Fold this protein.
Amino acid sequence: MSEVPAQTAHWNRQDFPAAAREMLENSQTRKNVQHATNVIQAKRNKVTAEMPDWEDLREAGAQVRAHALRHLDYYLTQFEANCTRAGGHVHWASDAVEANRIILGLVQQHQAKEVIKIKTMTSEEIGLNAHLEANGVRPVETDLAELIIQLGKDRPSHFVVPALHMNRQQVRAMFQREMNLPDLGDRPEDLATAARTYLREKFLRVKVAISGGNFLIADSGGICITESEGNGRMCLTLPDVLISIVGIEKVIPSFRDLEVFLQTLPRSATGERMNPYNSTWCGVHPGDGPKEFHVVLLDNGRSPILADKEARQTLQCIRCAACLNACPVYHQTGGHAYESVYAGPIGAILTPQLHSMGEGRSLPYASSLCGACYQVCPVKINIPEVLIHLRGKVVREDQATFAGKFSLWNIGMQAAAFLFKDASRLAMAERIGQIGQKPLVSKNGFIEWLPLMLNGWTQTRDLKAMPAQSFRDWWAKEKAPQANSSQRNEMGHDG
Amino acid sequence: MRVSLFITCYNDALFPETGKAVVSVLERLGHEIEFRPEQTCCGQMHWNTGYLREAVPIIRHFVQVYRDAEMVVIPSSSCVSMMRDHYIKAAEMEGDARLVTEIESLLPRIYEFSEFLVRKLGVEDVGAAYPHKVTYHASCHSMRSLHLGDIPIRLLKQVRGLDLQPIQNMQECCGFGGTFSIKNADVSSAMLADKVRNVLNTGAEVCTAVDNSCLMHLYGSLHRQRTFVRTAHLAEILASGHAGAKVEEVRA
């Protein structure tokens, strides 16, 4: 059995600024991403605005998820007991290697050479497909967009619409090539028919299915999946064996809690009022559905996130991708720039944590902190707050290294902190700046070129030069003589 | 009312006209203005870039300078949001309970400039005249942290001669984000390009906002492209062209 690296949620080629620069060159992708996110975002805004209790639902969702996370051990144990009682088998996987080994083992037990899959981000996180393929098992994605990604040997760029960076013509060309259908048309129904024909044969023949899970329901031991194509329900009901791999954070206390998320998830994700298919299943039942049912509960870096009280809310995520659709950074780059299974604002906080900051160190900086993600999040994850917390970690770790002590950023920021502690130092620095900037100032009074790390600014923007008189100088000259005489005595500042 | 100004570090060094405009508007409304030269910066740049420890002494300094102020007015929504959203957290991180208490007592006395006019003073017409086509950029912090809503727009609508032009995607970030514009210069430029296109599409001569940080970013591109569009802080527009009318008359 060949093993894949334990940490595969990060694609690990280059940092965000470099990957983003590459993506910005691709005007077709940018156009596709902007169009798709605008459409989804507009639908989302419409269907959330029509809910008078939307803010209450967000609050309820946040509370349920936060509560479940605070008592995660309790609810997971309860889930395990109830799932087992219903005839399911629960496996615990501490990392990607272990999860892959468990799943491959189950597939091999049933001598399956092919498995069908309903889109699961956890399987992407652990690199399951690569692991199965390396061991002679062919995984077939049945979600239309995932199938497009798989056949096109591409990578998903969005949670809910993984192929949103591609347009219809691109999909058609790929289908023509990969499915050997030279005469395929480009109407949506042509493409859907081609995919349906391709998949139907798999649904009827393949005996093992692999799914993810939107929610683990502790009080019943059940799992819930919401989807819109019905392929999921095919996977969940037709095969003999069903293996579901779900992150441990996905547990909710009770079946009743679904009420909240079945309202907020579809509206946030696709702007639909309800998902066409909401499946919940529990154990095995003779003559109905799979004969054998396994759940793999995946940790893979989640426990340390849970232990960090500043960042714990990251695990509240229900993967609706509303934050991606709302994010102006994501609008420009699409998901590939994040070099991670988890893209967009939530990816920017989740990926580096799953990897103890390792390769995702540039991701907490992939945001202007505009707050659009927090505003739309149906479980109120304060993503900007977590981004800042993680930036703090990056800086601390960087400052502790030898090279970090000499980095221009660290030196510059420490120097600025020194100036900002004392007004006379700041005033002095302003004066030095007014004089020091002179060689950089053009005749028009603007700075058109800055050196070193500041150069990024002047590649597309001019910078107004500092005027000769600061506000504090103006005040001291024009206002202070009259204003301060009466006020200063009673102040007693110690700044 | 005695109003203490906090002139943010970049307003002090780069946009002194904004501070002067705030002084002029508030004085005309009959308030006593003071500026405390010991003031420096709110600490936002350090905090948002991840230099959390380095931000704390700056925060402490701000609190020391202003703790006895009756009212603090700040012409920058992002600095006010730094204070409201992060100061207590920073003090807690330091384990400084006294600082937490001081911040809790100071925060209700801190106002962003337009918020102070409308929410605190109940003034929407400050007697300004500004005969130009203007568009308004709603900065992220003004919307999502301070929830200013249409406050700046209501102020602009009372300005004589001002022709307010609506902008598309008003809610989308201009891409500045402090050090984001340097650390992710390419994405920031791409966001800026979209925003500038929307500004130009309005046909306005002037783009205004309650944050000079966004305006510095927008103007950086508007100037590089040699467009005719200028930027002006809302305070500068509100300080313009008073016809000598007394505020009481204007309000009535």
User: Anything to note?
Assistant: Chain B touches chain A through 73 residues (CB under 8 Å).
